[in-house]
Design goal:
This protein is mainly beta. The protein contains three helices and eleven strands. 14% of the residues lie in helices and 35% in strands. 23% of the residues are buried.
Amino acid sequence: MVGCDGTRSVVRQAAGIDFPGQDTTLTGWLADVELDDPPATPLAATGPAGSFLAAPIGDGVHRLAGLSTATMHHGTGEPLTLEEVREQTRTLLGRDLGIRNPRWLSRYGNATRQVARYRAGRVLVAGDAAHMFFPAGGPAGSPDSTTRSPPTPHPVHTR
């Protein structure tokens, strides 16, 4: 069995695979939204109040990401509101880009974890079930399943 079921992996927990690491000490936010005034190209800005990113992700939606000194200690479970995204964007960028129609709003933390082992018997964990890292600057698309496990020499058959 391969567990690719996220950082709260039920498969990893059931297999008894340890997930040691560091807990969250700061948080940022993500928002997938439509913009009335989108930037012509992906945008990044940093300043004394924090950092801001905006990039198109398709179908007229942009991903906004922010790390603000004013909100960096909010809990990851604390709801993010559209008004907060607008306010933080104005603070970090100087304008709000006409943010509307949120598709997804979330906070993320800088917790970092790595499984103690990738395999326990017939169970293999990969992807976010095997690691957790701060999404800003992390190894997007980490090829765990191909680089961390031995190749399967024969097709796997189920009974």
